[in-house]
Amino acid sequence: MRERASGAGRAVEAVFREEHGLLLASLVRRFGDLDLAEEVASEAIEAALVHWPVQGVPARPGAWLLTTARRRAVDRLRRDRAYAARLAALQVEMDRTGPVPPADTAADLPDERLQLFFTCAHPALPAEARGALMLRCLAGLSTPEVARAHLVPPTTMAQRIVRAKKKIREARIPFRVPGADELPERLPGVLQVLYSMFTEGYAASSGPDLQRPDLTGEAVRLVRILYRLLPAEREVAGLLALILLVHARHEARTDADGALVLLGDQDRDRWDRAMIEEGATLVTIALTGGPPGPYGVQAAIAALHDEAPDLAATDWPQIAALYDVLLVLTPSPVVALNRAVAVAMRDGDEAGLALLDQLSGEERLRGHHPYHAARGDLLRRLGRHSEAAAAYRRALDLAGSEPERAHLRRMLDATTRPPV
Boundaries of each RNA polymerase sigma-70 region domain copy (predicted)? Predict the structure, then answer.
């Protein structure tokens, strides 16, 4: 019985991780209330934890959760007289068999989650709130994971999410598919969230595993849909190119025990060459026909990494030059950090460290463990072991996933071990 309960618990967790965003999007589209959707989705998960160990995991667990959540929502609405008129219409809809036919405009956005991404990118919401809301509610990231993506404390992020929901309620922002004339204004926010979703999947901010295939796979799927819908948008092509070129390396990023393998140590024969070829073709599309966009430039950088036979033969001068362009397009401490690492590979460790030290006052980097890890690497290579150890310790304090923490512990040991 205990094994059955454990198996059911794992099944609930797997379904929740894979289908949380789609479940929530379906509920919001049906009931038009984000808070209600979140509450009944949680109740459906709790019900599954009670019933599945006894009754067994259903053949279609996602559909079971959606049906349970819809029933809970209707029960709540029945108890609220203010929703009486809405409930009458909803009940007719609930009695139908099969999916609810989408509105005509929805035909252009065939995935409910993608529809809701665009809805939550409404310009009435502050830019930082849009991204936070989409990552938390639709991508299924925890508040700390969303905070990591935005380089802010979890408490700050929690407040942003609460304010965003309040704004939606007070401004009565409709949960609907935006018209074609509204899509360009909302597209940058959606691209940013999809990229953040992919990034969290590629390098998990916490947990026992380095990667979360559920998030990376879903991000790739949604961006592919978006590219099919908006093939003329070069930044959509750029984002798809970027995530394909990066995702092509995922099999080589860990060893058989799940330990982190750095780029320079990866077996490049394990990289997905078909995915790299597709990404490289999309880079050409993204960079043709006008000034480059940020995703196109980042994709070009990723392509240079993927084309190199090894780390030493990588075209570091061109990568550093592309980071110069990116820093103009999207000036940020993280871009400056990546540029400093590229400069170190091009001009030497002293040059890279000087740039990193110039960023020491950036508040957003103080809690960003890759910054401290990069300083540790350069200091170690320069023979400044006590300073390197301090940087690695700070990075270890901030890192979340166990593979990253294990790697930092190894680097720290290497800098503190007495010479033989």
Answer: 16-81
**Close Cβ partners of 80 (under 8 Å, ≥ 6 residues apart):** none
Which residue ranges make up each domain of the chain?
2-95, 329-420
- Alpha-carbon dihedral of residues 238, 127, 201, 111, nearest 10 degrees? -70
CATH architecture type of domain 329-420: Alpha Horseshoe (1.25)
Q: What is the arithmetic mean of pLDDT over 316-321?
A: 97
**How remote is the C-alpha of 203 from its chain's centroid?**
9
Q: What is residue 66's DSSP assignment?
A: H
Closest by alpha carbon to 102, among 94, 92, 91, 112?
112
For residue 225, give the nearest of 212, 238, 236 by alpha carbon: 236
Number of Cβ atoms within 10 Å of the Cβ of 149: 22
Residue for token digits 């950088």?
Answer: 301
Tens of pLDDT along 121-166?
777 777 777 778 777 776 667 788 788 777 788 888 888 888 887 7
Q: How far apart are CA 21 and CA 317, in angstroms?
A: 41
Tell me how far apart the alpha carbons of residues 393 and 263 are, in angstroms, rounded to a whole number: 22
Residues whose CB falls within 8 Å of the CB of residue 394, separated by 6 or more in sequence, listed in order:
369, 372
Name beta bridge partners: 401: 207
Distance CA 35, CA 169 (A): 10
**Cα–Cα distance for residue pair 407/203, rounded to 1 Å:** 13
Helix axes 154-171, 34-55, angle to 10 degrees: 110
How many other C-beta atoms lie within 10 A of the C-beta of residue 166? 12
Secondary structure, 3-state, 113-125? HHHHHHHHCCCCC
Name the token pair of 110.
């065939």
Give me the mean pLDDT over the 86-92 stretch.
47
